Amino acid sequence: MKYPKEQVQQNLDRLHELLKPGDTILCVLRHVSKSGMSRRIDFYTQNLDYLSHSFAVVRGDAEPKNGLRVDGCGMDMGFSVVYSLGYKLWPEGTDTPHGTRNGEPDSNGGYALKHRWL
Q1: Model confidence pLDDT, tens digit, residues 41-98
Q2: Distance between CA atoms of 28 and 81, rounded to whole angstroms?
Q3: Strand bridging mode 99-101 / 68-71
Q4: Binning pLDDT at 50, 70 and 90, where does residue 109 land?
């Protein structure tokens, strides 16, 4: 879905205000299709700020109804969404390393956020 640039920027700004590198996103599974090929997931901050709408706008997905629709299977789809969001928020990486990966300091934007299932 195509959102106006202003709306995308507003939601990016909101996410930058709510999220910092190292934060954990909470994932709530709402529904799995009969085929198992798609699911509906809602996303929240640790303070329970609702993120699914902003995620949808930034990713160009349809408005979440009973959760953000995520297609695919065979991997942690919550991780997939959170990774892609982190990469959109910090495409050039974070200013300072937010953790380690393979024993090296890591500033990759995709890995800047953690996730946890509820």
Answers
A1: 999 999 999 999 999 999 999 989 899 999 998 899 999 999 999 999 999 989 888 8
A2: 12
A3: unpaired
A4: very high
Instruction: Report how far residue 105's alpha carbon sits from residue 97's, in angstroms, rounded to the nearest whole number.
Output: 6
Residue 91 half-sphere exposure toward CB, CA atoms < 13 A: 2
Scanning the chain, the segments in alpha helix (DSSP H) are: 5-18, 52-59, 77-89
Residue 30 domain boundaries = 5-117
Give the number of domains in the chain: 1
Look at residues 44, 19, 12 and name the one whose alpha carbon lies nearest to residue 98.
19
Residue type, 3: Y
Instruction: Take residue 109 and report the two structure tokens written for it.
Output: 């934007």
Q: Nearest to residue 98, comparing CAs of 83, 89, 108, 85?
A: 108
Long-range contacts of the stretch 50-53 (C-beta < 8 A, 24+): 51/15, 51/18, 51/25, 53/11
